[in-house]
Every structure is written in C-alpha cells, then in structure tokens.
C-alpha cells in the first residue's frame, strides 16, 4: 500500500477541489461534528478554497505570518482523505494538526502514515509542538494520537468538555 501526500496547489486545484468535495459529500454526516465546513448543506465554495491558497502562498513568501498547510492523502494514487497543519510558520513554533479519511478507508493505517509525514514536514519548518483536538466520543482518533506519541492534557481554564486536547513535542523538548 503506497501512501503519499500531495500539497494543495493552484496548478491542480480543479481536480483536488472535486475530489475533496466528493469526499465531504459522501462523509458529511460523520464529519459534521468535527469540521465547520462539513456543517453546510452545500459544497465548500471554490472561491473560499482558492482565496485560502493564494493567502497561504503570500504569507509563506512573507515568512512572518502563520499559514495553514493542507495535503491531499493518496493511497495507490486514489484520493482517500485530507490532512492539515494550521498555524505553522517561522515565528510560530506550534501548529495544530487535523485530518479526515473517507469512511471506506478507515482502519487501514493511512492516517497514521500521513501524520508521520506531516510531522516530518513540521520538523523541517522548525515547529516544536503540534496540537490536536478530538471529540470526546471519537475513540479511534484518540487511540491513534496516543499511539503516535501525543499526550492528552487539560489547559487551565479550558471549559469545552466535548473536545479533548492533545499535544506532542517534536524535538523532545518539554517546555
């Protein structure tokens, strides 16, 4: 099983956008509690994605603003999901990872491999700490993050009891 990540790009935006929206449409009920863009009845708007990609490129060039990096996850050449790293950047040593895989590809260790690749990308971007959030009832994601070395934590003053927070130090620093 060949799993690789493909960065969202302006060059391939049409194909990537169609694959993404198709996956969201087929998995909307499962994704709705976790992602705001899955709560809408329509498809994710093309101009929203396009403007996000353009802003990502601009902020990446400027190198002083955090940016969001999104990757298409492919297995044997087929679209199987998306993984993202939000809030990354030269002056932002922390970022948040998020992911989803299509329903028919759950349990195949695809997300585990994708997370490893994104963590390597983050290390190369000088990111020291990665955060993640899971719904309290999403046991599969909790197990995956625990297996990948993430630790569950409760920050002072955090009140959302339906969401669990996770953290991993990439460079073996414990601050």
Give an overview of the whole structure.
This protein is α+β, with helices and mostly antiparallel strands and 175 residues long. It is 34% helix and 29% strand. The chain has a single domain (3-169), classed as Gcn5-related N-acetyltransferase (GNAT) (Aminopeptidase, 3-Layer(aba) Sandwich). The chain has a seven-stranded mixed beta sheet, sandwiched between helices. The model is unreliable at 59-65 (pLDDT under 50).
Which CATH-level-2 architecture?
Answer: 3-Layer(aba) Sandwich
Which structural class fits the helix and strand makeup?
A: alpha+beta
- The total domain count is 1
At CATH level 3, the topology is Aminopeptidase
| Element order: H for helix, E for strand | EHHEEEHEHEE
How big is the Rg?
A: 16 Å
Q: What is the level 1 CATH name?
A: Alpha Beta
Q: Major sheet: order of its strands?
A: 1-2-3-4-5-7-6
Look at the structure and name the CATH superfamily: Gcn5-related N-acetyltransferase (GNAT)
Distance between the termini: 37 Å
Quick summary of this structure?
With 175 residues, the protein is α+β, with helices and mostly antiparallel strands. The chain has four helices and seven strands.
